[in-house]
Design the sequence.
């Protein structure tokens, strides 16, 4: 089972969570690949069996700049190869903003356009409530591991 981890981050928090997710998935015996700024060609060459996106939100509910090129390419080309594949979204945000986890919502919409099937409800990590996003994500990630291995 090959799972790709896409990430979008402004200040590095989501990046850390993505790295943590990669370690956790690998420790569970899954072939996880996380590389920031992945191109669409690299992504297609990896031929994932599942897609996890870890992204924060910036601006007014927008995706971080480092995820925009891939997001744009995916929306433009809409590769058909992922139709029916499992996907999951781990969103970081701050509930004091109006568009809480808006970046994650944009990825959910993209998944729907690509035909990716959301395996479990998007996790929303709230920076105004907790300062330990990596450990907060663990139960959700363990649930994901169990579903991927089932
Ligand atoms: C300028 C700015 C705009 C933000 N806009 C939003 C927003 O619209 N919605 C939201 O849920 N969080 C928003 N946030 C909160 C970040 O998504 C949150 O702090 C996140 O943990 C940052 O992760 P990062 O270090 O990976 O960028 C914003 C933060 C900043 C600094």
Sequence:
């Amino acid at each position: 089972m090959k799972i790709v981890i896409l990430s979008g981050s402004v200040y590095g928090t989501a990046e850390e969570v993505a790295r943590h997710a990669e370690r956790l998935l690998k420790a569970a015996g899954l072939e996880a690949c996380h590389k920031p700024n992945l191109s669409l060609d690299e992504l297609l060459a990896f031929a994932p069996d599942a897609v996890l996106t870890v992204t924060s939100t910036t601006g007014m509910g927008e995706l971080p700049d480092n995820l925009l090129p891939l997001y744009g390419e995916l929306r433009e080309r809409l590769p058909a190869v992922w139709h029916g594949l499992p996907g999951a979204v781990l969103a970081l945000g701050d509930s004091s903003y109006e568009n809480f986890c808006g970046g994650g919502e944009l990825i959910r919409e993209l998944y729907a356009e690509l035909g990716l099937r959301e395996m479990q409800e998007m996790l929303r990590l709230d920076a105004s409530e907790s300062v330990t996003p990596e450990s907060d994500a663990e139960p959700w990630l363990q649930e994901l591991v169990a579903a991927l291995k089932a």
Remarks:
- The CA atoms of residues 95 and 140 lie 19 Å apart.
- The longest strand covers residues 86-93.
